[in-house]
Specification:
The protein is an alpha+beta fold. The protein contains five helices and four strands. Helix content is 46%, strand content 15%. Strands 1-2-3-4 form a four-stranded antiparallel beta sheet. Strand 1 and strand 2 form a beta hairpin.
Length: 142
Amino acid sequence: MAAKRVAAAKVNGQTALERACGRAAAAGLTVAGRGYRKSDFALVWFIPSQHEANRWYQVTQVGAHMECACRGYRDFAQTCAHIGAVCNDLAAEARAFAAAQAAAQVASIGSARVLTADEIEQQRDTAPLARDNKPFSLFKAS
């Protein structure tokens, strides 16, 4: 049964979510607003309707699952373009974050300098007492 479900989920090598992301990109759908629901702290996004002016659909993340308030999702249990728009937005945000992390890493590597032999020697041993084989050492605390 599970094998049939997986086989049915892929059409032309794409999952329903990948197709929804493609439909959202083709329609130019973008996230107009985001936030969280105060009653249960679920993440919510607001996406404008493709066909009706002044109409917005709410996409809600419930656990690891997304739900939309549109008729296509509600009546037919399809992954709609509104969910695809949210996924496209999250993917763009993840790419921007990864690029910022890579830039910060390059900047930190670029600011590092090579130490000279004298600087390495100075950093090698900074212990206040010389090391020896005595069982203990006493020194005057300041």
